[in-house]
């Protein structure tokens, strides 16, 4: 076990101690204890920076299930390191922030930090595992820790709703991912990504390539809240705000992005264009839909949720479009590579500005008691530091210089505009949609960014609408967002701090076919660059739209609420439940006679069909003796007896007829010279008739219900058919004696060595005495059972 | 010790008889039951080890050489299932101490449990098709009595259905054995296999008999469309009995299908295995539908039995080494986890006095241990790694995909989601939410009830995490399934 | 089921013993001619049923004061132990042994462990049948 493994597992181990710390040190906020770990881990991962710089990677393995090729192999390369730093870095800041956000008196801090640590470990596992099954394991763990964090305030109906929704959608995606992994395994015989990469040709030309791609993309899209699976993310906002900042903005929702980036070296080679269209297309639709819907929200957190959806779409679309690079010459200055760089860069930037914005919203909620922009306003003077943070964060998000968001947004435009130069997979005709939608969505992004800042901080302060008297947040709560916005500015001014240290190695992992070095991110692309005018357009049109929002917001009413995917989800669960219930009730009547009818109809149908299709009916009369008069008479007696049982009007008659049938059978044994059987059958019949009479003595007089003719007719048909089938098989089996019976052995061995003269008895007590031993056990159980049944009558007490 | 493999049958049998004498002394009964069950785990474990080291173990009962006497055969499959059975038996017996109530205890409850174990373990161990029938009878008779004992109205009503259906299936079983005997002239399973294997082509009548066996065992195993009796009947008995039924009885049916289909009816696969596959897939679907249809926690878990049966049999129907391995891994997992789940909802019902999910909530506040145990059981059931259900399901699906049976494998993959939904519904609505006041009927010994559950869950977690260790055993079990020669060799050619 | 038919009662007393003797005969003949523990047990039970019909359940309980559940259990125990005896000698479970003896009065006879097993069967059959009859009879 290497240090890397310990790093991944350390949050899990740490989590075990949290409850003890919580119980043992009531006066210290549990967050302080927790905080140690992400900081240490962040520092630990920092030292990998120089190692992965040149595109190399570190691999460590411990075996888990070697027989199935499932080993806990971890690999640090540029991409996973970027994520590991995000997870531990943002993790540290969020933990620090949460110490002030969550009151140690009111909240169950032990569970909160246990979940948080579980998530942290799981997320590290996702990004560092090289073995896809291990990755999948951690993937599901992130879903479940997210489930618990969303449902942290589980006495709220909405929390439970949000938790269930996120779990169902992300676990659905997880299962789909698992399907994809299995298909990849079938194609390559390995679960390790690095070994799959070595075997790319075998995958690309395999028939299962496309199904595997779709399966994996479903996993990525659900996790990263891509359209139309985005619906779980807004409801996930029921989680405490530190959680929203951490899981549902900076890290977990980016697991889908990570996955797409991770498998890009395989699937981007897709020759059908499906990958580009799916990843790029779904990404760009999500970008648009998220930004468009963010504007109509009134809850600050909801705005940020839709914003996150939109930004995830942005990164996703870049990964899709960037894949096109592989379909052109593998030149180091391939113009389509920029999309990949933009994706990585924006991923980092998004974590910084969105993280700070979430923390701002948390502060506002904490200090004013609401997040509703209709009740907020005028907080600029009261909360100046918070305002400054919000201003920087939102302007970066809107893509305004000099913040980091501006830089990556420009690169995004560059990537999208270059789609126009692609001439494959119908991009030459429909490719224009990419820059167009990108631009429109950016306008909306600008609008909601303005809403976040100005609706909250400008305008009139309305203290009567707030449940608390607003004031600036405590210092501790401000530290984390201040650090994040500082990064927004630093990365905005000096983007090349990142370019070769983090961005290049990460991009390298996404597209190992190219060499990424000398990435230079510049603020100015000259007067001729279309990006410039796009940005100016965004600001101008965006500002106009923001100012006239009241007038055009009616447009949202054009989309009927009933047709949203959210409503679909809401309708799906109950209707699934009622549908299932109706289905079950339709046949689970609770009546034995229906169940028997189903079973026998199946019996008749399947056996009848088998006999017919296998031509199984044979009759061989070579070995049969002449049928004598006795046999005919006895058979007739049995038939008469059976008919009497069915049509008898009283129980007594039925019982006597049943006895008669039994006695007649024993006469058959006499004819066929089986005195033992005859004797036993006779005594059995006698005793059982006596028992029947004894039992019936206690039964009520009413004997049978009158049933409809139709019902009787159906039953008659079924029973006759069953009889016929059984007889057909009996005749055929008797006629198909393929081997000698083992019974001769018994004849030869009864006297010596078994030491008996009556073969039947020797079989019963010796050859097959084992059977007898358990048959008498059955008898004993029956005796005990009847005794208990009659003697023990418990009234209906509690269940269980 | 040549009699080793009969001991797991003999110990509960002797215990059962002994318990009859101590009917009125409840304390003594408990001690005897628990000690015997624990002892049997040890014995079953040593059988597993013995088989692992020395290969298939056989015992010719009464010194009559196979195929003429009755032969007991412990291959790895049966040894593992016997071991699992003894573990579940022990846990359920412990749970019963503070759950089943003195009245039932005095009316031979513990003896009946031991008899049930005799039947189940015997069925797993025997190498004789008629003897299998006899053990079925032991198991069924014990189950009839366990179902009805106590005599509440619902028990009486459901027992009648259960009894009727099973008496019919027993009759069909005996008829099927007779047909088979007529065609192949022997009852020894190894010899049946050898004789059928020596045929160049399987005659139609054997295919018919295969289908007949499928119907017989399918009724026990509750596959579509023969499962109708199960939801009602399993709903009626007290919880520990429900756990035994849910964990063991249907699995004996499944085991018998696996055994007969791999040992006897391995020819004409296109017909019989295809039929099995179709039924298995529909079984999964029907089980899932049932489990999401209800807000009654007992019903939810009961329908999940059916789903699992479908998954296991799907793997069997694919019939590759991978899918068999998956099925066996899943089978053992499911026995453990079903027992745990039934016992868990038993504790919930004890606390709240109801099995209606709409009538209680917020249990996690006062019973966090219960909640977390339930959660682990729930995600294990859904096959979330690294818990016990995962590797089995993985291999079943992988086997399905590899054999290009995409539809079934995809259905099973997605069924996990609805399985998860059905059990997490219990978690979300029963454990989360605002705690309610419940009419306390009696004080319950919460810890004593939870202990056996935690025991099973611990084993199941180890089973999942230690999959590699388990795999080495299971892969040995699968060898007999894919290569019946091994079984025949062990029994007939000494 | 109360009966006070004097003739029936008197006859049944005699017939009871005749049937019982027949049952014992069946039991011992089993290994060589039709019969055995199972049939023997059933016939014995039949004899007791006849007794029941003639008298009533209480009288029978006084005349034959056994706890039939114990009879069952003892029978089962005998059978199991007979079969398990072979474990002590480390031969396969259920291996019978027999030998011929010359006993005074009875003469040349063979003793077979199978007979011991069959005795268990006999007791179980009698025990179970009587448990059932007694339970149902008493539940009026």
Q: Keyphrases for this structure?
A:
heterotrimer; A: 800 residues; mainly alpha; two-stranded antiparallel ribbon; 33 helices; 2 strands; elongated; B: 494 residues; two-stranded antiparallel sheet; 78% helix; globular; MrpA_C/MbhD (chain A)
The residue fraction in helices of chain A comes out at 55-70%
Question: How many angstroms does the end-to-end distance of chain C come to?
Answer: 9 Å
Assembly type of the chains comes to heterotrimer
What profile does the largest beta sheet of chain C have? 2 strands, antiparallel
Strand order of the largest sheet of chain C: 1-2
Largest sheet of chain A: 2 strands, antiparallel
Mean pLDDT of chain A: 90
Q: Would you list the SSEs of chain C in sequence order as H and E?
A: HHHHEEH
Q: How is the largest sheet of chain A built, in terms of strand order?
A: 1-2
How far apart the termini of chain A lie comes to: 46 Å
Strands of chain C, total number: 2
Fraction of residues in β-strands of chain A: under 5%
Q: How many discrete domains of chain C? A: 1
Low-confidence stretches of chain A: none
Transmembrane segments (chain C): 6-28, 35-55, 70-94, 115-137
Organism (chain C): Perspicuibacillus lycopersici
Main location (chain C): membrane
Membrane topology (chain C): Multi-pass membrane protein
Structural summary, described in words:
Chain C: Pfam families: MnhB. Chain C: It comes from Perspicuibacillus lycopersici. Chain C: It is a multi-pass membrane protein. The complex is a heterotrimer of chains A (800), B (494) and C (140). In chain A, strands 1-2 form a two-stranded antiparallel ribbon. With 800 residues, chain A is mainly α. Chain A has helices at 3-24, 30-46, 49-52, 78-101, 109-128, 132-150, 157-188, 193-197, 200-204, 209-223, 232-235, 241-250, 255-267, 274-295, 300-322, 338-368, 384-398, 404-417, 427-430, 433-457, 475-493, 496-510, 530-547, 549-552, 565-587, 592-613, 629-647, 651-671, 675-696, 709-735, 743-749, 759-767, 769-791; strands spanning 58-65, 70-76. The model of chain A has no long low-confidence stretch (mean pLDDT 90). Among the domains of chain A are: 1-204, no CATH class; 627-704, no CATH class; 746-800. Chain A is built from 33 helices and two strands. In chain A, a hairpin with a 4-residue loop joins strand 1 and strand 2. The radius of gyration of chain A is 38 Å and the shape is elongated. Chain B has 494 residues and is mainly alpha-helical. Chain B has one domain (4-492). Chain B is built from 21 helices and two strands. Chain B has helices spanning 7-21, 26-54, 76-97, 102-106, 109-125, 129-148, 153-184, 189-198, 204-221, 229-235, 239-263, 269-293, 297-318, 321-352, 363-366, 368-381, 388-402, 406-431, 446-465, 467-482, 484-492, and strands at 57-61, 70-74. In chain B, strands 1-2 form a two-stranded antiparallel ribbon. In chain B, strand 1 and strand 2 (70-74) form a beta hairpin. The two termini of chain B are 17 Å apart. Helices cover 69% and strands 9% of the residues of chain C. The longest helix of chain C has 26 residues, at 113-138. Chain C starts with 5 loop residues before the first helix and ends with a helix. In chain C, strands 1-2 form a two-stranded antiparallel sheet. The mean pLDDT of chain C is 82. The chains are: A mainly alpha (800), B mainly alpha (494), C mainly alpha (140). Chains A and B meet through strand 1, helix 6, helix 7, helix 25 and helix 26 of A and helix 1, helix 5, helix 6, helix 7 and helix 9 of B.
């Amino acid at each position: 076990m290497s240090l890397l493994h310990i790093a991944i597992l350390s949050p899990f181990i740490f989590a075990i101690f949290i409850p003890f710390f919580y119980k043992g040190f009531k006066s210290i906020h549990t967050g302080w204890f927790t905080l140690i770990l992400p900081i240490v881990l962040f520092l630990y991962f920092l030292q990998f920076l120089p190692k992965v710089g040149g595109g190399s990677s570190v691999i460590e393995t411990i075996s888990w299930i070697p027989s199935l090729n499932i080993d806990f192999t971890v690999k640090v390369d540029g991409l996973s390191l970027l994520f590991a730093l995000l997870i531990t870095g943002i993790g540290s800041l969020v933990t620090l922030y949460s110490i002030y956000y969550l009151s140690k008196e009111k909240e169950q801090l032990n569970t909160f930090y246990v979940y948080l640590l579980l998530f942290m470990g799981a997320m590290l596992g996702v990004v560092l595992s090289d073995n896809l099954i291990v990755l999948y394991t951690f993937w599901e763990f992130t879903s479940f820790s997210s489930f618990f964090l969303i449902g942290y305030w589980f006495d709220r109906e909405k929390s439970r709703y949000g938790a269930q929704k996120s779990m169902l959608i992300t676990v659905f995606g997880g299962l789909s991912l698992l399907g994809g992994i299995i298909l990849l395994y079938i194609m390559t015989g390995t679960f390790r990504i690095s070994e799959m990469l070595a075997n790319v040709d075998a995958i690309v030309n395999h028939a299962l390539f496309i199904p595997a791609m779709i399966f994996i993309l479903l996993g990525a899209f659900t996790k990263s809240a891509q359209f139309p699976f985005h619906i779980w993310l807004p409801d996930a906002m029921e989680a405490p705000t530190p959680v929203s900042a951490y899981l549902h903005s900076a890290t977990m929702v980016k697991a889908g992005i990570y996955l797409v980036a991770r498998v890009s070296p395989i699937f981007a080679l897709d020759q059908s264009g499906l990958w580009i269209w799916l990843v790029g297309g779904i990404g760009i639709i999500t970008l648009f839909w998220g930004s468009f819907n963010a504007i109509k929200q009134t809850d600050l957190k909801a705005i940020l949720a839709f914003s996150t959806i939109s930004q995830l779409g942005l990164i996703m679309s870049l990964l899709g479009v960037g894949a096109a690079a592989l379909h052109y010459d593998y030149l180091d200055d391939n113009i389509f590579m920029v999309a990949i760089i933009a994706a990585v860069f924006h991923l980092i930037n998004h974590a910084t500005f969105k993280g700070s914005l979430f923390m701002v919203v948390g502060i506002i909620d904490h200090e004013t008691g609401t997040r509703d922009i209709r009740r907020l306003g005028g907080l600029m003077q009261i909360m100046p530091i918070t305002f400054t943070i919000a201003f920087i964060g939102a302007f970066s998000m809107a893509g305004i210089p000099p913040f980091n968001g501006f830089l990556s947004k420009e690169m995004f435009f560059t990537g999208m505009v270059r789609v126009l130069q692609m001439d494959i997979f119908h991009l030459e005709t429909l490719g224009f949609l990419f820059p167009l939608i990108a631009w429109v969505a950016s306008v909306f992004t600008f609008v909601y960014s303005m809403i976040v800042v100005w609706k909250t901080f400008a305008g009139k302060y309305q203290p009567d609408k707030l449940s608390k008297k607003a004031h600036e947040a405590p210092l501790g709560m401000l530290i984390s967002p201040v650090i994040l916005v500082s990064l927004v500015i630093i990365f905005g001014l000096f983007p090349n701090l990142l370019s070769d240290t983090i961005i290049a190695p990460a991009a390298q992992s996404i597209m190992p076919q190219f060499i990424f070095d000398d990435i230079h991110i510049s603020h100015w692309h000259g007067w001729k660059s279309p990006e410039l005018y796009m940005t100016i357009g965004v600001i101008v049109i965006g500002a106009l739209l923001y100012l006239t929002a009241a007038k055009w917001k009616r447009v949202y009413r054009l989309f009927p609420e009933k047709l949203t995917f959210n409503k679909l989800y809401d309708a799906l669960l109950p209707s699934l439940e009622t549908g299932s219930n109706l289905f079950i009730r339709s046949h689970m009547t609770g009546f034995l006679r229906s169940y028997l009818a189903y079973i026998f109809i199946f019996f008749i149908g399947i056996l009848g069909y088998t006999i017919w299709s296998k031509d199984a009916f044979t009759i061989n009369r070579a070995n049969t003796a002449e049928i004598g008069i006795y046999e005919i008479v006895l058979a007739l007696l049995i038939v008469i007896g059976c008919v009497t049982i069915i049509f008898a009007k009283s129980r007594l008659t039925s019982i006597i007829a049943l006895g008669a049938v039994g006695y007649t059978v024993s006469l058959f044994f006499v004819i066929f010279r089986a005195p033992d059987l005859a004797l036993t059958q006779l005594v059995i019949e006698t005793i059982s008739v006596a028992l029947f009479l004894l039992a019936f003595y206690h039964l009520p007089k009413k004997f049978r219900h009158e049933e409809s003719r139709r019902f009787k007719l159906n039953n008659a048909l079924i029973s006759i058919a069953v009889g016929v089938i059984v007889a057909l098989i009996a005749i055929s089996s008797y006629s198909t004696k393929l081997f000698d019976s083992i019974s001769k052995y018994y004849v030869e061995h009864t006297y010596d060595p078994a030491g008996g003269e009556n073969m039947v008895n020797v079989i019963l007590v010796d050859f097959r005495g084992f059977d007898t031993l358990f048959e008498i056990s059955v008898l004993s159980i029956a005796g005990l059972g009847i005794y208990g049944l009659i003697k023990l009558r418990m009234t209906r007490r509690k269940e269980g | 010790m040549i009699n080793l493999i009969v001991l797991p049958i003999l110990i509960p049998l002797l215990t059962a008889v002994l318990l009859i004498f101590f009917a009125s002394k409840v304390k003594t009964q408990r001690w005897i039951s628990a000690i015997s069950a624990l002892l049997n785990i040890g014995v079953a474990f040593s059988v597993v080890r013995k088989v692992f080291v020395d290969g298939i173990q056989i015992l010719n009962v009464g010194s009559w050489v196979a195929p003429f006497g009755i032969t007991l055969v412990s291959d790895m499959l049966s040894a593992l299932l016997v071991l699992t059975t003894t573990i579940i038996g022990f846990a359920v017996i412990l749970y019963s101490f503070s759950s089943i109530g003195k009245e039932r205890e005095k009316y031979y409850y513990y003896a009946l449990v031991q008899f049930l174990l005799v039947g189940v373990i015997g069925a797993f161990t025997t190498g004789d098709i008629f003897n299998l029938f006899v053990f079925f009878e032991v198991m069924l008779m014990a189950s009839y009595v366990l179902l009805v004992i106590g005599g509440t109205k619902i028990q009486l009503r459901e027992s009648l259905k259960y009894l009727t259906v099973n008496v019919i299936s027993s009759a069909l079983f005996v008829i099927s054995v007779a047909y088979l005997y007529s065609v192949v002239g022997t009852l020894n399973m190894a010899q049946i296999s050898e004789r059928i294997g020596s045929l160049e082509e399987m005659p139609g009548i054997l295919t018919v008999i295969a289908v007949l066996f499928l119907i017989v065992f399918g009724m026990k195993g509750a596959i579509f469309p023969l499962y109708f009796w199960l939801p009602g009947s399993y709903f009626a008995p007290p919880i520990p009995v429900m756990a035994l039924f849910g964990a063991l009885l249907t699995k004996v049916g499944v085991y018998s299908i696996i055994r007969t289909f791999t040992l006897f009816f391995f020819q004409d696969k296109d017909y019989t295995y295809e039929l099995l596959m179709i039924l298995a897939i529909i079984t999964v679907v029907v089980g899932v539908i049932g489990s999401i249809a209800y807000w009654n926690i007992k019903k939810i878990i009961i329908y999940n039995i059916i789903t699992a049966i479908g998954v296991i049999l799907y793997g069997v129907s694919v019939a590759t080494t991978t899918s068999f391995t998956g099925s066996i891994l899943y089978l053992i997992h499911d026995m453990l986890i079903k027992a745990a789940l039934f016992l868990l909802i038993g504790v919930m019902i004890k606390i709240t006095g109801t099995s209606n999910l709409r009538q209680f909530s917020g249990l996690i506040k006062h019973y966090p241990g219960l909640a977390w145990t339930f959660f682990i059981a729930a995600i294990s059931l859904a096959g979330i790694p690294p818990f016990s259900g995962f590797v089995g399901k993985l291999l079943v699906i992988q086997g399905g995909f590899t054999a290009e049976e995409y539809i079934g494998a995809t259905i099973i993959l997605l069924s996990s989601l609805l399985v998860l939904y059905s059990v997490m519904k219990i978690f979300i609505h029963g454990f989360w939410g605002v705690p309610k006041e419940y009419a306390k009927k009696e004080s319950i010994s919460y810890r004593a009830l939870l202990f056996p559950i935690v025991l099973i869950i611990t084993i199941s977690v180890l089973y999942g995490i230690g999959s590699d260790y388990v795999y080495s055993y299971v892969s040995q079990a699968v060898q007999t399934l894919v290569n019946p020669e091994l079984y025949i060799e062990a029994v007939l050619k000494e | 089921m109360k009966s006070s038919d004097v003739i029936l009662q008197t006859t049944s007393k005699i017939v009871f013993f005749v049937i019982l003797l027949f049952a014992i005969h069946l039991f011992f003949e089993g290994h060589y001619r039709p019969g055995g523990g199972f049939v023997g047990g059933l016939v014995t039970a039949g004899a007791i049923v006849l007794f029941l019909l003639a008298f009533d359940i209480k009288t029978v309980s006084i005349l034959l004061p056994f706890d039939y559940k114990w009879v069952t259990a003892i029978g089962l125990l005998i059978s199991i132990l007979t079969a398990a005896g072979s474990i002590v000698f480390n031969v396969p479970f259920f291996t019978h042994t027999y030998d011929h003896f010359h006993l005074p009065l009875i003469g040349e006879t063979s003793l077979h462990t199978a007979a011991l097993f069959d005795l268990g069967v006999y007791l179980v059959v009698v025990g179970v049948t009587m448990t059932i009859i007694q339970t149902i009879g008493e539940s009026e």
